[in-house]
């Protein structure tokens, strides 16, 4: 088993006033040669955007971009004509494929929006741009693990990669396990809230842990906790 521990305090940080962003991996002005990516997982940004502010229209290509609001609402528009509000308990994915432009603005002027934006390198290049969004009842992940992004599950949002995202809201002292989906995949654990122990490694709020060369994660909630598991290929074929 190989592990990569990223404590919350070690992340890159940029505060632009309207945007307060923490970067688990190298992004924009933050660069760390040891933290470029974890397998196909390229970006994990923990963003807070002030009311009415956001990211104006900008382009992407050949990237799977997942947005998970933790609080508040995001207004998404893109060059395919999509015009959607992404709310807490929603998960959105945009397969940028051959090229797309989009904007993400805080839909409310009177409160912040907090969200995770995650980029995964795609399996196939230059596909037609694609969008998917679903809402997931938090009761369905209370003391259980719920798949929210997958290439093979109609109940999840579809991704152009052999990757699976799983959310869990765990009560203190709850134990469970997670089986890695593919032999050569690894799992990146991100602790949204609380404290957990994964394969005997203690993690606190906003810590990240990459685990590879193992088939199973043993999970123990040291407190009430919320976790995100990102199961991705460790080898990228270009």
Strand order of the largest sheet: 1-20-17-22-15-13-14
SS content category: mainly beta
Based on Cα principal axes, name the global outline.
globular
The helix-strand sequence is EEEEEEEEEEEEEEEEEEEEEE
Q: Determine the fraction of residues in helical runs and give it as a percent range.
A: under 10%
Major beta-sheet overview = 7 strands, mixed
What's the architecture, going by CATH? Sandwich
* N- and C-termini, Cα separation: 26 Å
Radius of gyration: 17 Å
Level-1 CATH class name: Mainly Beta
CATH topology: Jelly Rolls
Report the CATH superfamily: Jelly Rolls
Task: Report the mean per-residue pLDDT as an integer.
Answer: 97
Percent in strands = over 45%
Query: Uncertain regions: pLDDT < 50 for 5+ in a row?
Result: none
Report the count of strand segments. 22
- Helix run count: 0
**Overall tally of structural domains:** 1
């Amino acid at each position: 088993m190989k592990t990569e521990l990223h404590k919350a305090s070690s992340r890159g940080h940029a505060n632009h006033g309207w945007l307060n962003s923490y970067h688990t991996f190298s992004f924009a002005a933050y660069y760390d040669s040891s933290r470029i990516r974890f397998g196909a997982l390229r970006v994990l940004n923990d963003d807070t955007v002030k009311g009415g502010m956001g990211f104006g229209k900008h382009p992407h290509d050949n990237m799977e971009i997942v947005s998970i609001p933790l609080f508040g609402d995001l207004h998404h528009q893109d060059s395919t004509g999509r015009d959607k509000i992404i709310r807490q308990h929603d998960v959105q994915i945009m397969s940028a494929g051959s090229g797309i432009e989009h904007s993400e603005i805080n839909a409310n002027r009177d409160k912040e929006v907090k969200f995770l934006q995650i980029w995964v390198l795609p399996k196939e290049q230059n596909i037609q741009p694609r969008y998917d969004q679903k809402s997931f009842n938090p009761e369905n992940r209370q003391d259980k693990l719920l798949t929210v992004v997958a290439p093979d599950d109609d109940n999840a949002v579809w991704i152009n990669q052999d990757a699976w995202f799983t959310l869990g809201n765990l009560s203190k002292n709850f134990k469970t396990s997670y089986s890695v989906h593919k032999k050569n995949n690894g799992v990146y654990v991100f602790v949204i809230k609380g404290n957990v122990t994964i394969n005997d490694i203690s993690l606190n709020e906003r810590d990240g842990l990459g685990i590879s060369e193992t088939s199973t994660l043993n999970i123990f909630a040291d407190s009430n906790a919320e976790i995100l598991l990102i199961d991705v290929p460790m080898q990228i074929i270009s």
